[in-house]
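Changelog note: in this version the structure field was regenerated for every chain. One regenerated record is shown below for reference.
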Amino acid sequence: MIELELKYQIKNPSLNLADYPVLKSLHQEDIYYDTKDYQLIRNGNFLRVRNNDRIDFKLNTDDLTHFYCKETSFKTVEIQQKCDEINAVFKAIGLPCDQQYKNFNEFVKANDLIVLSPIRKNRKTYQIDDKMKVSIDEAENIGTFLEAEVTVDAENISPEYANKIKATMVKTLQEKGLLSAEDEAVNIGYVELYLEQHNRPAYELGLYKR
């Protein structure tokens, strides 16, 4: 599965979404980790722990638009049983690790990782049509954003096909009055947005920039 996402910084947060079913409303805490020399963000890879419950690896697919990625997830409580699988992901992105660990803290220590950025946001997600979901995020110390997402049942897609889907998503959002000319497209993630404001040297090392 490949996720395709669009993100806009919303200039008028008072969007009329009353006609769309709310799928969920929640507070998310995403803690991103990296090596001390920022090898993950340098290569466009991300390691995230969401709500202290799930470990997500978002892996670079050589797409410099930051429009889609491959994602692999593990439950934090299953980390001891999933050591070999997690080590395999690290090896795939050039960070060999053959150690065994009982919990996430041991995993962090074994790989000499540091906290890259804490992303805390209040999110409300709506079902816009049979294919697209839209989330409105109030991101702490960053801003208000609209994030649209569709999922493609494929292992790989061409840039041309991705751009075609992107254009359809934008058109749908505009027709439904969820995007205006004043809203600013954002081609980087919350990690980069956070680093741009709070850790400029790390931001400059990252693969993805405005």
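Spot check on this record: Residues 63-69 have pLDDT under 50 and may be disordered. The chain has one domain: 2-205.
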